[in-house]
């Protein structure tokens, strides 16, 4: 009797063990699949951006800034008397046209004019014999006094011949705040190469370029020589100082020295009305600019617009100050 | 009387339970295997990572060419007499491979080595607000996993048309106007009397892996 009960107990236990074991394994497999699935789900979510539409809003801001900059430059080069209405009207057109394109992808964009800063544009163009002398043929002269902001300063050298062969008598652009605080750029011909040296009150940097043709454009505020970057003109930090045009100076005078040791054209836009009337011809009321004397006219220095961007997920509003070609 | 051992009936019970547990295990394994199907992140041409990378590359190409002026140049790379883009076949008017301009070279460097096909089109408007589209490059119907990037640039009245060798033509877009240039003047006269903006153009790139 004892044997029977024992064997009965044993066989009873074994049958349940198989079923329970299979059930346990099944639950384990399903739980494993669930865990792996949640890992895949999390990684999938991680490929999406954190805020939907935020990069779009910032890209559009950059596009608007470029478009308004283009329109400002057009107004400065073409409208000698009607600068403000031209820019305002073009900004309205930009807003309307951009909105029409963006509505198709359910975004609303609005650009509205807020304010502008008037300035002056100082230009010499179409000159081959004059060098960089002023209207009375003086090679050392002041372009503008007490300037705080300058942008789009470009020098176009059309003939490498007149360049000095050493630094001592070479053409120099000076941004002069005081006798001890100034920024100078010297341009000369270093045995066939175009050499540019920048001196501030604490640092010096230079770069040398091999220019193949007889033309070289020095874009001072963008830091380019013949469309290649020149470290001496951009944010080269020697001892942690920034070497861009007139950086750290305020209320400076812009001067040319040895203006007969260079040949070509130049243009710059300043943010105040202080062009030197004794050295520059006043072309503000001319319909076409003179071609044998450096002149100044009214120009827009910068425009501030309000930019609003709305989608069902994101609403973004900001003010953009558009200053095309400001020093880096 | 000695009763029959219960083990005889139990044999069928054991078998039945073994079969049931076998089925249970099989069903669980089949269910678990079905869960690990192809996901958007699996390695294939339609992976989400690949799409994000393509989108960034296309946005980058458009941004850098807009900065250097190459984007504005290709929009004006128009042959006035032939009424099509320079170098496109007559009657077709668009390219099937990148054109020989800085913009075409940028697209070539970014995409052609990576087995990516792309279509480029130019969207512009007229004064009434109707949006028109002009094909620039067409390489076929995009796949289901194509990405799109676009960039808006402003064309002003005194921008010149561009000749086949990249030099500026003497005709400005305002002079070419609606008759000779594919894009009309969409800017309303502001009070000053001088129109600045000619048209606001959106260049759209659709790219997909092949």
Q: Would you write up a description of this structure?
A:
The complex is a heterodimer of chains A (328) and B (210). Chain A has 328 residues and is α+β, with helices and mostly antiparallel strands. Chain A is 28% helix and 34% strand. Chain A contains three helices and 15 strands. In chain A, strands 1, 3, 8, 9, 10, 12, 13, 14 and 15 form a nine-stranded mixed beta sheet that branches. A six-stranded antiparallel beta sheet of chain A has the order 2-11-4-5-6-7, with no helix packed on it. The radius of gyration of chain B is 31 Å and the shape is rod-shaped. Chain B is of the alpha+beta class and 210 residues long. The mean pLDDT of chain B is 84. Chains A and B meet through helix 1, helix 2 and helix 3 of A and helix 1, helix 2, strand 5 and strand 8 of B.
SSE topology:
The complex is a heterodimer of chains A (328) and B (210).
Chain A: H1 2-46, H2 54-78, H3 83-103, E1 108-124, E2 141-147, E3 150-157, E4 171-178, E5 181-190, E6 193-199, E7 204-209, E8 216-219, E9 224-225, E10 228-229, E11 252-257, E12 264-270, E13 281-282, E14 295-310, E15 315-322
Parallel strand pairs in A: 13-14
Antiparallel strand pairs in A: 1-12, 1-14, 2-11, 3-8, 3-12, 4-5, 4-11, 5-6, 6-7, 8-9, 9-10, 14-15
Helix pairs in contact in A: 2-3
Chain B: H1 7-35, H2 48-68, H3 70-75, E1 78-79, E2 84-85, H4 102-111, E3 116-125, E4 131-137, E5 147-156, E6 160-162, E7 168-172, H5 173-180, E8 197-209
Helix pairs in contact in B: 2-4
